[in-house]
Amino acid sequence: MTGRTIKEMELRKAYTPAETRYDDAAALYRRCGRSGVLLPKVSLGFWHNFGSGDSYERARAIAHYAFDHGVTHFDLANNYGPPYGSAEETLGRLMTDDFRPHRDELFIATKAGYDIWPGPYGNWGSRKHLMASLDQSLRRMNMDYVDLFYSHRYDPETPLEETLQALVDIVRQGKALYVGLSRWPLEALKTAHAYLLAHDVPLLVYQGRINLLDRGPIEEGILDYCRDAGIGFVSFSPLAQGLLTDRYLHGVPDDSRMAVGKFLKREQLTPELLTRLQQLNVTAATRGETLAEMALAWILHQPGITSVLAGASSPEQLAKNLKAIHAEPFDF
After folding, report:
1. Which of 15, 77, 206, 246 lies most in the core, judged by the most C-beta atoms within 10 Å?
2. b or e along 207-220 (b: 16 or more beta carbons within 10 Å of the residue's beta carbon)?
């Protein structure tokens, strides 16, 4: 028997979740808007660290740690990886190896709206794109349905009714239990909310970027609207892709995401931003927290926030992120 075969057999040993995973349920979960859904305050994002170029053993360890500690919400999109689709394939493998017996304990979300295949139908918000993309996602994840399906971004060229009716039909076909919107402007969000209500498919959740460096949905009134309308709000990029950690307090490490330059650019770390990060780090230290813990806690204490999506490169990093659940409130 080869070493590779032995390793594969070890990876497929039966996974037994921690019996204590729901012991802290009162602190772990929040109701999503005015729905019946409870989501963990800190959810696991699959944007990074779950692609085919990443270690499957590490991805598996992160997912195990998450579920063992009550993190039941896994957030994906059709183009997460890299390459595109590979994060969903990783989840499909995790379902086969570990989570199939626990499917009903998980709340799985995926999205469509960014480019995923060539040609005019591989992008944006047409019925063709949304329907075909979700079918592809379900095959990659080895699932019959997802709990939540998002329109990943607003499409100014496609009629709203076409995008929204596709979401309605996806629910009616049983391919998703709930629908959500991400990166939609306020007026389009209001129109979508009314349309979906009129078709008996309520808008469960809105996903937008909120962090200590970017308060767009707060300043634009989106968070207030969601709170008043009974729509949940999930915040992505809560650590600003690592800026709100101790990673960049002294410059750009050679092995950092910014050094690679795909999503973060070196020129973004201006002297002014570096000073601000260092000041925030001092504030965090006075609270007895790391900068990352404080950044997550700040979001969780904004009225109307349901959950923050935190990625993790290791179980240890996820453990640190989960500390934000118990952080003291503050305002600045």
Report:
1. 206
2. bbbbbbbbeebbee
Between CA 307 and CA 325 the distance in angstroms is 10
The pair of structure tokens assigned to 103 is 């499917």
Residues 183 and 154 sit within 8 Å (Cβ to Cβ): yes
Q: Is the pTM of this model over 0.85?
A: yes
DSSP three-state, residue 246: helix
Choose among 302, 326, 77: nearest CA to 211.
302
Domains and CATH numbers, the chain: 29-245+290-325 (3.20.20.100)
pLDDT, tens only, 59-110: 999 999 999 999 999 999 999 999 999 999 999 999 999 999 999 999 999 9
> What HEC string does 53-79 produce?
CCCHHHHHHHHHHHHHCCCCEEECCCC
Residues 6 or more apart whose CB falls under 8 angstroms from that of 189 comprise 181, 206, 222, 225, 226
Parallel, antiparallel or unpaired: strands 232-236 and 107-112: unpaired
Tokens of 130: 């949304």
**Nearest residue to 313 (alpha-carbon basis) of 18, 11, 15, 50:** 50
Give residue 270's region: left, alpha or beta (phi > 0; psi -120 to 50).
beta
Report in angstroms the alpha-carbon separations of 60 from 15, 19, 100, 121, 249: 10, 18, 14, 33, 30
